[in-house]
Amino acid sequence: MAVESRFVVIRQGVEVETFMDKKAADEYDKMLDMADSLAEMFEGTALDLNEKIREELCIYLAKNREDVLIALQAKKPKPAPKAKKVVAKSEEQASAPLSATDSPEQESIEPATVAVKKISKPAAKAPRKAKANKDAA
Questions:
Q1: What is the pLDDT of residue 31?
Q2: Contact, 43 vs 27, CB < 8 A?
Q3: String of b and e for 67-77 (b: at least 16 CB within 10 Å)?
Q4: 14: phi > 0 → left, psi -120 to 50 → alpha, else beta; which?
Q5: Where are the beta strands (DSSP E) in the chain?
Q6: Residue 25 falls in which region: left (phi positive, over 0), alpha (psi -120 to 50) or beta
Q7: pLDDT, averaged across the chain
Q8: Is residue 98 helix, strand or coil?
Q9: Residue 12: left (phi > 0), alpha (psi -120 to 50), or beta?
Q10: For residue 25, which of 5, 7, 92, 135 is within the disulfide window of CB 3.0 to 4.6 Å?
Q11: Band (73; pLDDT cuts 50, 70, 90)
Q12: Rounded distance, CA 130 to CA 59, Å?
């Protein structure tokens, strides 16, 4: 007999979502708390938003809180991925065949230019002399 642990997020007496992982359930619950707080904030404004749009907007902002914080300049964006990864993606895209809907005229995005800085390694040290040579002298 197998035993399964399930974590259920309950809001106002209604099961909202079920998770197999406690961390995922806690994150979802936190996101819903943020959406509720945003909804309260929007209710107090002069903006005329119907309930459905306000709910969707609040959930969207809560799910994308990292991007919102970056847009508000409350948080710094994550550093760009390493050059090798970007080059690899560009090579994959370049080698991928065009589909019937893709055409060179439609694509106006230029491939990213990546500058790679060569880092030189310090010269290797000479190997140490064996102790046997010291003892013999």
A1: 92
A2: no
A3: ebeeeeeeeee
A4: beta
A5: 7-11, 14-19
A6: alpha
A7: 74
A8: coil
A9: left
A10: 7
A11: confident
A12: 68
- Listed in sequence order, the residues at least 6 apart from 29 whose beta carbon sits closer than 8 Å to its beta carbon are 9
The residue whose two tokens read 């970007």 is: 86
DSSP-based three-state secondary structure for 14: strand
Tokens at 132, concatenated: 């046997």
DSSP secondary structure letter of residue 83: H
Residues in the chain: 137
Which amino acid would we find at residue 67?
Answer: D
pLDDT in tens, 4-15: 888 888 888 888
> Does pLDDT of 94 surpass 70?
no
- Distance (Å, whole) CA 25 – CA 35: 15
Distance of alpha carbon 52 from alpha carbon 74, whole angstroms: 28
The radius of gyration computed from the CA coordinates of the chain, to the nearest angstrom, equals: 28
